Amino acid sequence: MKNTEDEDRLRELQEAIYSDPDNYSHHYNLVRLAFQTGLFLWEKGEDTKELKEKAVEHFVISAKLNPNNSHTFQFLGHYYSRVSVDSQRASKCYQRALTLNPNDSESGEALCDLLDNEGKESLEIVVCKEASEKSPRAFWAFRRLGYLQVHQKKWSEAVQSLQHAIRGYPTCADLWEALGLAYQRLGMFTAAIKSYGRAIELENSRVFALIESGNILLTLGSFRKGVEQFRQALETSPCNIAAHYGLASGLLGLSKECVNSGAFSWGASLLEEASDIVKKSTFLAGNITCIWKLCGDIQLTYAKCLPWVDEGQKLGTNEEAFRTSIFSWKRKCHLTAIAASHSYQRALHLAPWQPNIYIDIAISVDLIYSLEERSRPESDVWQLPEKMSLGGLLLEGDNDDFWVSLGCLSDNNALKQHALVRGLQLDVSLAVAWAYLGKLYRKQGEKQLARQAFDHARSIDPSLALPWAGMSVDTHSRGCTPEEAFESCLRAVQILPLAEFQIGLGKLAFDSGQLVSSQVFAAIQQAVQHAPHCPEAHNLNGLICEARSDYESAISAYKLAQCAISTLAISAPKSHFYDVSINLARSLCQAGNALDAAQECEFLKKEGMLDSRVLQIYAISLWKLRKNDLALSVSRNLAASIPTMERTSGVVSISLICKLLYHISGQVSAITSIMKMPKELLQSSKISFIVSAINALDHSKRLESLIPSTRHVLKSYEEITGMHSLIAISKLVRHGSEESLVIQSGVNHLRKALHMYPDSSLIRNQLGHLLLSSKEWKDIHIATRCSIINPPDCPAVRGSKSGYGILGAAAVACYASSTTDQRFSFHTCKDQCMDGARALQKMQRWLHQEPWNHNARYLLLLNVLQKARKERFPWHLCITLKRLVLSALFNEEQYLKKDASHIYQKFQILLCASEISLQSGDHIDCINHATNASKLLVPDGNLFFAHLLLCRAYALQGDFPNMHKEYLKCLQLKTNHEIGWICLKLIESRHKLQIDVNKIELNFEESLKENRSSWDKWMAIFNLLQGQSSIWGHDYISAEEALAHACSLAGAESCLFLCHGAICMELARQQCGSQFLSLAVGSLTKAQEASIIPLPIVSTLLAQAEASLGSRAKWEKNLRLEWFSWPPETRPAEVYFQMHVLARQADSISDSSYVESFQSSQKWLLRAIHLNPSCLRYWRVLQKWTG
């Protein structure tokens, strides 16, 4: 119907043109109608050729009438290309359409498709370039041109075209993918990853983008991200070979990273997953060489890195179980190496022309031989690794790496040297060849040549491990110190964690005294996993654990070393077993297992290995077993062998004999023996320390005459400072009594010594420790400034105090150290200590450096508890504290001893757990922890606090009978800690538990007798508590008297003056007398002056008092001071309201320097309402103000 109407309209327009040919409007309408009719017929005749031909007639008419309409030529081109199949006419029509409108993407794409089908790629490029040059918005041309340039590998030009095309098609994933490929080929990997990522964002199923971005990430070493990309690609296309290959390669690279960082088990698990993936790839495409080669690489790496794990089976006590474990580990490595060799052989079968596969087979076969522990073959017999290496050289004889491989795999020294030299002839800067040549020369005894070769290798490539290891071996010829050798070997281990290098590092650490280094500990742990059959690895592991005071682990390591010697190292010399047995006996003795240590010494005695070291351990073990006669007998045997000993061993033996005589026979016997010794035997620093220590304990001073001669031998800095430390301790003992020590005498000596040796960490830390032990308030703050924190891995001086421990204890001892954050409290102490946050960070660092250190965990717990107390026990800190308590109690069971210090630590940990439960509202758990603490064997003065905590818990529960019972128990136990009586007095006042009026006061004063210098401060605090009790009873007169007395005792405490001023203000309000206003003004003024920082509320109260006395100027001044007393983030609404009042008073004053003039009084009032909208007083003022 519409077609008929259009044709009638068309005829009418044609007749109008004939009648009036000069009228342009008739022509325009005719062209427009002809085009619309043709378009209608074209769409209607989509599947009908007749209608399309009829539509073309109208398009032809439209083209004749309007030759500048590009759409007409577009549809004509569609007709000739799709209906009549006349490509030449279609091309001309499309070209005409593009000439008229270069932005016509449909015509452009159709023309390019025609040219592409005809193979005219160059014309296609010309068309796109012409369109892009004519119009910058011809995005289709840039897109097509970019694709063509990618196809022709013109990457730089393609990047420009694709970037321009993306402006028109920003959501086209194909464009982003092509752009990523262009960037990738240009080496612009970061830009390529971003482009591929954008394509994946638009279509997450773009497998090509996922795989290529994964390959780039593997190239950049980002194996973890690359693995994620390949996994996502496999989710979309599970059978994609490239994705399987990339995922296996990524897991291989990630596993190597894990192995280099020491995570062998994790690396092995990644390799197992990679092996499964690459095996699936072989089923999908078993004729691809690179897949079989990758399979071999994965299996070979797995065979090299698979760790041996003890798994906590106590293999050291069962030789058969240890043998089975080692055999199982070796068999697994051996089978995996054989599988790797088979995979390489399959790859060689598919591509026999690839020489690198020959080298891979040679390496895998060499690993198989090493795991089989084959005997050295005859020098004239060529082994399979050598033959396979020659196979690779036959194909590529000028490859220097292949020559180096032959040199490494060959057992013939002449062939090895020839191969390495040939590699250097091909590339003189080949550092690997120089390194292995140095190793060969070292093995042949040519130390000069070896040193030169290692120097060449290190200068060419400092990142190579072998030259650094070789440098550490040649310490004597190079004139290096043990410390320098240790650093060189450590560098080698950090570059390449080989068991051979790690064991050498352990030996050098033993020689240089650096066994406590965490790096050495990690290296030897890895050596044990890689070489469990090597007794040296287990023995060094035991020495390191022993140096860290982890004796149980040391015992296990030594037993494993014994098993390795007896079951595996058949050819090991007898001295190895002897050394390990001595180490085991020593660790057993230090661990408190004297019986087993004595049995080990008896075994060595039966074997005829009883030398001075064994005798020393044997004597100590017998003494610990209370077999004093036998211990003295062994000591006599030891003394008889002293003349035949070296000087160092003789000095150690004499020192031990003196100690045993002192502990077994008494002080007199030890002094008599020392007096009888020849003078030349006393000329030793160790003997000097023993003589000085015994003389300090002897009130008769019978060894006083020997001291000058023995101290004359002290030469080194460490010996002299150590002697000063001992002298300080002797003064504590000599001037003190059995019940207490005189701390100040030792402090005075150490202060003098510190002037002579200001850098001595021993003196500084001991001085800090003594200051902490004193009861002087200021000494706690001085202690933190005295102490020094030694660098990590610095060997600790035996008997010295830890700087970390002193800082942590000081932060706990001084509550002011945790009150510096004004969000929670205001610091009023004049003595500045370390900030609690800094102390907490240092405790965390200490525990991180020494995770086995129980004191570090204990002090960290106390510091976190201090932080939680400061912040009112927030939930997240309570959770942290509970975890720390569980960890501390769990570890406590492993190392707990029966000495007082460990029991006291457990007592404090249980009190911490009880306090945390109390603050969390778990009263039952609180009571349980406090009850467990009360059962420990600690002094009554400490048990007092467990029952005090129980008293608090029962009070919160409302269990008054039990509360009263615990209150009486506290009175019975008593304590010499003043804070305990203050807390008990507080509970007594709150709950009216008073039995005897003066009992707590008398006990409190009794506890102050030992600390007369702090009498005034503690009595002021006690009077403050009495004033608080009077306030609870509404007896404000008594409260004022108590607080006035407190102020007179501690005149520098601003908090006491604030409390006294507030009570006086309350008494004045109750009209008890105008004199209280004057008292209030005096106390509040002193509070202002005494505080190191402005205290809030003080100025407000003082302003009220001054206003009551009629002083308006002082009232205004103090209100302004109150504004600055508050931190900006914590100012309350009342302070803003005070500024509103001042602003209203100051409206007529032109001075704008006052704080209230910074904004209008109305804004001050609105801010107060905003902070406290529940205050009706503010709303009334606002209503009055607006009214």
Q: Would you report the number of β strands?
A: 0
What structural category characterises the helix and strand content? mainly alpha
Q: What is the CATH topology descriptor of one domain? A: Serine Threonine Protein Phosphatase 5, Tetratricopeptide repeat
Q: For the residues shown, what is the average pLDDT?
A: 81
Largest sheet: none
Net shape: flat
Give me the CATH superfamily of one domain: Tetratricopeptide repeat domain
Number of helical segments? 61
Helix content: over 70%
What oligomeric state best describes the polypeptide chains here? single chain
> Which runs of at least 5 residues are low in confidence (pLDDT < 50)?
23-32, 816-820
Whole-angstrom Rg: 45 Å
End-to-end C-alpha gap:
80 Å
Q: Per CATH, which architecture of one domain?
A: Alpha Horseshoe
Report the β-strand fraction as a percent range: under 5%
What is the CATH class of one domain? Mainly Alpha
